[in-house]
C-alpha cells in the first residue's frame, strides 16, 4: 500500500509492526496503549533492562498519528496515550500542529524529542526517559506536563508559550553541552510553573520569563559545578509568589503546590551554585523559608533591584559567598537574625524596605550588626533607612539608637582630631540622641558652678537698684540661653571668673539645644 493511501478511511498501513498496529488501533479508539511487562524492574524507563521489539514503535509512526492520523472510531475521540513504550529514532514534530491529546507515561525515547515551534492542545510526558527535549517557541493551549521525567542532555523551552501550567515536579535534568539543564529564557506560562523536588544538574536559566501566577521550586535541588550560576533568572516576572521553600514528602500529588502542614516530613530547597534574580518583579512575595545555599567565595544570592511586596528571608545563612540586595524595593522584610551572612558578605546599597517583621528574637544590637555587615566602608544610607522604618513603626527610642550608631561608625573614618571630638560628644551628650544625659549634665554643671560662683567676687554693675546676689540663680541665668533671670547682667566678674562664665554660657547653649531637640522628638512622637 502506498503510504497515506486509505488512511483517512481508517485502513491499517501494511508496514506496521505488531506493536505499531496496536498503537494505531488504540489511537483511533482513544484508549490507553499499555505495553508494560508487569515487573517493576523491567518496566522502569530509567533502568538498564532492554526493551525488545514487542515494546518498540518507530517515531515516524507516532508523528504520522499525531500530524495526519486516521479518523477516530464512531463515538470516540482520537488520542495518543502510551504507557511503557519505547520510541525508536528521533521524534520530530517541529513546526507541526498537533490536535490529538498526547500523553506518554513510563516511556523510553532512544533519541531526542524535537518540538520547536509546534502547536499542541495539552502535552503530558510522565516518568519518561528522554535524551533531550528541544522545544523552543513551542505553543500549548493547555498544560505541558513533564513530571518525574529524566532528561539526559537538557531541556530547551526558549520563548515557549504554555497556556496554563508547566509541571516539572520530581524531574531530573542534566546539563547540555553549554552547561545548562533547562533553558526557559523568554518563556511565558499562563498560570503556574511547578518544579517541586526537581533535580537540576547545570544552569537553570529563566531569563525574562513570565509566570502568570506562582513559580514553585519547593524542595528542589539545584546544583551546578560547571558554571557560576545554578539559577539564572534576571528580569523574571511572577504574578504572585516565588517559592524556594520545603516540599512535603507525604503524598506528592496531594501536597504539590501547597505549603507542608506542621509535622510533615519535608525536603528543603537546596542550591549549590549562584542565584541571580536581578530586576525581578514578584506580585506577592519571594519566599526563602529554610532554603539552603552552598556558595563558593565568588558566588552570590543576587536580588539586585528586585521589587516585591514581601521578602521572606528565612533561609539558612550561607557559609561562603554573598547576599546582594542593592537597589531592591520591598514593603515587608520578614527575616530572622541567623539567616543573614556575616560582615563583608552582605550588600544593601540602596535597599529600600518599609516594615520589619522579624521571626524570633532579633534585638536591636543584632539589627545594628546586620547593618554593619552590609557596610564594609561607612555608608549612612542603611542606618538612615533602618531609623526611618523604626520611627514610622513608633519605635523612636530604637531609631535614635540607630542614628547614634551611625555617628559612631562615622567617627571611625575621621582623622585623629575628629575622632577625639567625636568621643567627647559621645561621652557628654551621645551626639544629642540621648537628651536625658544632656539634662543631667546641665544639672551637674549648675550645681558645680553654683558652688564656684558663691566664692567669686561680684561687684554690681550699678551702685544701686540691683537685686541681691544669688550664686545659684546667677549660674542658672548663664546656663539657660534666651531666658533672662535678671542676674547675669547685674554683676561684674573679673579674671578667671569671666572665662568660667563664658564657658558656662557656651556649654549651656550646647546642652539646652540638645534637650530641646530631644523634647521636640518626643512631642512629635506623641
UniProtKB/TrEMBL annotation:
Q: Which UniProt keywords apply?
A: Membrane, Transmembrane, Transmembrane helix
Query: Which chain regions cross the lipid bilayer?
Result: 499-523
Name it.
Oxidoreductase
Taxonomic lineage is: Bacteria, Bacillati, Actinomycetota, Actinomycetes, Kitasatosporales
Amino acid at each position: 500500500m502506498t503510504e497515506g493511501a486509505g488512511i483517512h478511511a481508517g485502513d491499517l498501513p501494511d508496514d506496521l509492526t505488531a506493536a505499531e498496529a496496536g498503537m494505531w488501533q488504540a489511537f483511533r479508539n482513544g484508549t490507553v496503549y499499555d505495553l508494560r511487562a508487569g515487573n517493576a524492574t523491567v518496566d522502569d524507563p530509567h533502568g538498564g533492562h532492554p526493551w525488545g521489539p514487542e515494546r518498540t514503535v518507530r517515531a515516524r509512526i507516532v508523528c504520522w498519528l499525531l500530524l495526519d492520523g486516521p479518523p477516530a472510531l464512531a463515538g470516540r475521540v482520537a488520542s495518543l496515550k502510551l504507557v511503557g513504550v519505547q520510541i525508536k529514532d528521533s521524534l520530530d514534530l517541529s513546526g507541526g500542529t498537533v490536535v490529538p491529546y498526547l500523553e506518554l507515561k513510563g516511556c523510553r525515547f532512544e533519541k531526542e524529542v524535537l518540538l520547536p515551534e509546534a502547536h499542541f492542545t495539552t502535552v503530558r510526558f510522565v516518568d519518561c526517559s528522554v535524551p533531550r527535549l528541544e522545544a523552543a517557541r513551542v505553543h500549548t493551549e493547555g498544560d505541558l506536563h513533564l513530571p518525574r521525567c529524566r532528561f539526559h542532555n537538557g531541556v530547551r523551552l526558549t520563548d515557549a508559550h504554555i497556556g496554563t501550567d508547566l509541571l516539572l515536579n520530581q524531574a531530573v535534568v542534566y546539563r547540555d553541552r553549554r552547561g545548562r539543564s533547562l533553558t526557559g529564557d523568554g518563556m511565558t506560562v499562563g498560570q503556574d510553573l511547578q518544579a517541586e523536588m526537581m533535580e537540576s544538574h547545570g544552569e537553570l536559566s529563566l531569563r525574562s520569563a513570565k509566570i502568570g501566577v506562582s513559580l514553585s521550586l519547593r524542595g528542589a535541588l539545584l546544583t551546578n559545578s560547571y558554571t557560576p550560576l545554578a539559577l539564572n533568572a534576571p528580569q523574571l516576572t511572577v504574578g504572585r509568589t516565588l517559592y524556594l521553600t520545603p516540599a512535603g514528602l507525604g503524598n506528592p500529588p496531594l501536597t504539590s503546590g501547597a505549603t507542608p502542614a506542621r509535622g510533615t516530613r519535608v525536603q528543603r530547597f537546596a542550591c549549590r551554585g549562584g542565584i541571580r534574580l536581578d530586576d525581578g518583579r514578584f506580585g506577592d512575595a519571594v519566599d526563602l523559608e529554610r532554603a539552603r545555599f552552598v556558595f563558593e567565595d565568588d558566588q552570590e544570592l543576587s536580588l539586585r533591584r528586585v521589587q516585591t511586596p514581601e521578602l521572606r528571608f528565612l533561609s539558612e545563612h550561607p557559609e561562603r559567598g554573598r547576599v546582594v540586595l542593592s537597589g531592591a524595593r520591598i514593603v515587608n522584610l520578614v527575616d530572622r537574625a541567623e539567616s543573614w551572612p556575616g560582615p563583608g558578605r552582605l550588600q544593601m546599597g540602596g535597599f529600600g524596605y518599609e516594615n520589619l517583621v522579624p521571626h524570633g528574637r532579633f534585638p536591636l544590637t543584632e539589627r545594628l550588626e546586620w547593618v554593619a555587615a552590609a557596610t564594609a566602608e561607612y555608608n549612612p544610607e542603611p542606618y538612615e533607612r533602618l531609623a526611618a522604618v523604626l520611627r514610622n513603626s513608633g519605635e523612636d527610642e530604637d531609631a535614635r539608637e540607630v542614628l547614634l550608631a551611625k555617628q559612631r561608625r562615622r567617627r571611625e573614618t575621621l582623622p585623629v582630631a575628629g575622632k577625639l571630638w567625636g568621643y567627647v560628644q559621645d561621652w557628654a551628650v551621645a551626639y544629642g540622641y540621648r537628651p536625658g544625659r544632656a539634662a543631667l549634665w546641665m544639672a551637674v554643671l549648675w550645681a558645680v558652678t553654683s558652688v564656684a560662683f558663691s566664692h567669686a567676687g561680684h561687684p554690681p554693675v550699678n551702685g544701686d537698684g540691683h537685686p541681691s546676689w544669688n550664686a545659684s540663680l546667677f549660674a542658672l541665668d548663664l546656663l539657660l540661653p534666651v531666658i533672662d533671670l535678671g542676674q547675669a547682667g547685674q554683676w561684674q566678674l573679673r579674671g578667671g571668673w569671666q572665662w568660667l562664665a563664658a564657658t558656662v554660657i557656651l556649654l549651656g547653649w550646647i546642652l539646652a539645644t540638645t534637650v530641646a531637640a530631644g523634647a521636640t522628638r518626643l512631642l512629635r512622637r506623641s
